[in-house]
Known about the structure:
single chain, mainly alpha, 2 domains, 7 helices, 3 strands, 37% helix, globular, His_deacetylse_dom
Amino acid sequence: ARLLEATLAPESGVEWIREIDPASKAELSTFHTQEYLGLVERSSSGTRPVFLDTGDTPAFPGCWEASGRVASATVRAVALTRERDAPVFQPSGGLHHAHPDRASGFCIFNDVALAVRRGLDGGDRVAYLDIDAHHGDGVMYGFFDSGRVLDIDFHQDGRTLFPGTGFPNETGQGDGEGFKVNLPLPPGAGDEALVPLFRRVVPPLVREF
C-alpha cells in the first residue's frame, strides 16, 4: 500500500493511464472459447445471480465490461513494454486461474494468458514469472504444449492451497516439455525461502530461454 501511495504522489514521475476500453470479443477469443464468452456476455446483462464456475466466481451486472477492461489493460501494458524502455504496472491484473472455457478462482477472463498471446505475435517468445501464493493453473495449462512460453511459477504447495496444481512433475508436454517450471513452497514460507531459490533458478533459465 505504501508503494502504491508513493506512485500517486505528483513528484513520483509515474504516468497513469486511466481510460481503458474493454477488450473486444475478437481479442478475448484469442484465449477463450466462443461458448464461454457467450455465457459471460449473457450473464453480464442478467439480474439473477449466477456462477460462472462451480461456485466461487459469481457473475454480476456489467462483469463483461469490467473484466474486459482488466484484460485490455494488461494487454496494453505488454504493448507499452515494447514501446518504452520503462517498467509497466497493471494493479488490477493477474487473473491467472481462468481457463479457455470456464471461470475459476474469482477470475473471469485470463488477462495474463491474453497478454501472453499478444506477446507471441510476430514470432516472439514470452518468459512469464508468477509469484502469487496460488498456482497460475490457467496460464500453465493454457500453454502447456508451447515451447515459446517459459512459465516459472513460485507458489504454495498445491496439496495445501487452491487450485491444487503446480507440482514439480508438471513440466509441459510435446513442444512445451521442460518449459513449465513449478516451484512449490511450504505454507508460511517467506523471503528467506523464496529469494535464494529465485536467484538460483530464474536468471539461468531466462538466459538459456
